[in-house]
Each structure stands twice: as C-alpha cells, then as structure tokens.
Design goal:
This protein has about 290 residues and is an alpha+beta fold. It has two domains: about 120 residues, Nuclear Transport Factor 2, Chain: A; about 100 residues. The chain has six helices and nine strands; from the N terminus they run H-H-E-E-E-E-H-H-H-E-E-H-E-E-E.
Length: about 290
C-alpha cells in the first residue's frame, strides 16, 4: 500500500502537539498535587508529635530560602540581644502551625478534620479544628503561599486570619528586638530593676559585656570574666548601696551609635554589637 506522505505529515504534527498538551497537563497536575502533599504531609507529622514544634524546628527544606533567613535571624536576635525576662521568639507562646496557644490534648490528624485545597496559583489552604469536641469556634484556616525552588515547592509565607502574615510578623518582631536593644532606657531599666532584687543579680549579668572592668571602692580596677566570683561581690555591693537609678534615660532620649559610652550611676553603658552593654562597674561613684 502506498503511503501518502502529504497526509502523514499533518497527522504526525497533530499527534506531537497532542502529546505535548497531555505532558503539560500532567506536569501541571503533578505540581499542584505536590503542593497539596507538602502541606498535608507536614500536618500529618505535626499532629502526631507529642510536643509543640517551634517555627525553627520544621523539617529541612520546608521554608523557602527567604523565609528561612527570617526565621534564623529571629533565633539569633533572641539569643544574642533579648536579655530581659520578656518572652522572645516567634511563636514561643503558642503553636504557629495551629494558630493557637492551647489545643485539645487528644488532638490528632484524623480528629482535627483536616482538609486541604488550592485557592489560588501557588496558594493552598489548610482548615482544621484544634478542639474538635467544642464546635466551630475552634476552626482554623491557614493559607500557605508556596514558591518553587531548585529542590521543589517551599513555603514562602503563612497567612492567618485578620490579614496576618508570618513574614510580616517575623520582620516586625526582629525589628522590635533590635529597637529594644538600641534603647538605653529599656536596657538600663532592666539592669537596675535586677539590682534592686538580691535574688535577681545573676540576671543583670546578661547585660554585661565581658571582660568587664570593675573598680572597687578603693580605686583598684580589674578586668573580670563572667565566672569571676568577685563580679557577684561587686554586684552585691552595688545592690546594697542602691546605685543611682532615678535618672534613667527616657525612651529614645539617647541616640545609639557604635562605641558611644553613657555613664549611669556606677555603671558605664556602651553601645556595641547592636546593643547597649555594661562595660564598666565603678563602685567609687556610689554616693557615700
């Protein structure tokens, strides 16, 4: 049988185009399913854990590079600059992934009525209930904004109720930590508050940059490390003699700049490494 090549060519082109359309559709379906699976698998694991998981404890590759950088910055800022008794750390007072401070002790994946759906391009919505026995008041809805990176789909943001965004809240908390560290009034307020309480002197040590110069009431000055027992003796003496803490700077009154030194009572505060630190304790300044 003689083959009509003129007819065969259009048929071949048509089949090729059809195959490409099918492949593209299959790829699109696969990517959409990967997005749903990423969040579903995460919650299946999250709701099976006996302890609360912090945002910094997610599996590697869950966050996008940009979001992971914000989370890492939050951890580092809390570790290095949050020295007061205030709770520090995004999500430290609750469960970010459940958008709740408390959940049912018996909550698991099946009882949560977890559902997942795509609501926009690269946006999936997870819905669940954190107290299944107490009705719809405990329904939760979190949207995950996803981005495709070299290793697959990653979470680039989490959107909560009341137009809250994980990225925005993280950046706000990081900025607030830096702002408090730059506020001499806030730093000095915590230090002198601890010095007024004999059982809190060790907390004042959090604000000291080591080695710190300590001058006793006789004018003998020594550079001391954190574990030097004479340091606590100096703080005890300072506490007993009630160093001058009546004239603390008001919020924003002192402009922070690297290397700037401000004496308050028997203490020198120096701005370095993005925060105010006690760099000198001079007991000679105490009122007789």
């Amino acid at each position: 049988m003689k083959i009509n090549k003129k007819r065969l060519l259009p048929v071949g082109i048509g089949l090729f185009v059809f195959a490409m359309v099918v492949l593209q559709a299959d790829k699109a379906w696969s990517e959409k399913q990967q997005q749903l699976d990423l969040i579903t698998d995460f919650y299946r694991d999250h709701l099976a854990r006996p302890d609360k998981r912090q945002p910094s404890q997610v599996p590697p590759g869950f966050y996008s590079k940009d979001l992971e950088a914000l989370v890492d910055a939050n951890i580092q800022l809390c570790y290095s600059l949050s020295r007061s008794d205030d709770v520090c750390g995004y999500g430290a007072d609750g469960d970010v992934f459940l958008d709740a401070q408390d959940v049912s002790p018996s909550l698991d994946f099946d009882r949560s009525s977890f559902k997942i759906s795509r609501v926009d391009d690269n946006v999936v919505e997870a819905t669940f209930n954190v107290y299944p026995d107490m009705g719809t008041a405990y329904d939760r809805q979190i949207r995950y904004v996803l981005v495709q990176e070299d290793d697959g789909w990653r979470v680039n943001d989490m959107l909560f109720s009341q137009n809250r965004s994980m990225r925005v809240e993280l950046q706000q908390e990081n900025d607030a930590i830096l702002a408090r560290a730059r506020d001499l009034g806030d730093t000095a307020g915590w230090v002198f508050n601890y010095l007024r309480n004999d059982d809190m002197l060790d907390r004042a040590v959090r604000f000291i940059a080591f080695p710190v110069q300590v001058c006793d009431q006789y004018g003998i000055c020594t550079a001391m490390k954190r574990d030097d027992p004479r340091l606590m003796q100096a703080l005890d003496y300072l506490a007993d003699n009630k160093g001058d803490n009546d004239q603390l700077p008001r919020p924003g009154e002192v402009q922070a700049s690297d290397g700037k030194v401000v004496p308050i009572g028997a203490l020198d505060f120096t701005f370095q490494n993005r925060a105010w630190w006690v760099t000198k304790i001079d007991l000679r300044r105490l009122a007789p």
